[in-house]
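> forwarded from #structure-qc
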């Protein structure tokens, strides 16, 4: 398995459809968490703030995997009902639009979570 040095290298390795979806998520996360930094963690794109990863994402064959840790998934359980999800992962199918407002709320929740833990 190829080890990626940065998000640009990761995106360059994808086919065009998955690259386009991943780029949309990348831009959405940059806007939702403007103080965060892009990183590769566990060989996936992620955004990190205050020394902590907020969320990870990775396009797979059939869906965009979104990994916000477990607490946001519990908190937003009702809003996540339309999506297959588990303790730490959410699957956004390619045949549906990304739930931009929900992703923004999850990222904001993670920013607040990280900030509270540091206080």
């Amino acid at each position: 398995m190829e080890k990626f040095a940065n998000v640009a290298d990761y995106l360059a390795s994808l086919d065009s459809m998955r690259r386009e979806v991943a780029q949309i998520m990348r831009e959405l996360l940059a806007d939702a968490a403007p103080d965060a930094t892009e990183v590769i963690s566990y060989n996936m794109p992620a955004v990190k703030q205050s020394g902590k990863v907020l969320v990870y994402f990775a396009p797979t064959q059939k869906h965009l995997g979104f990994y916000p840790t477990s607490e946001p998934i519990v908190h937003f359980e009702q809003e996540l009902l339309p999506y297959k999800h588990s303790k730490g992962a959410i699957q956004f199918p390619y045949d549906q639009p990304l739930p931009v407002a929900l992703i923004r709320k999850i990222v904001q929740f993670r920013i607040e979570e990280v900030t509270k833990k540091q206080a």
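QC bot note: Residues 100-118 form the longest helix (19 residues). The mean pLDDT is 95.
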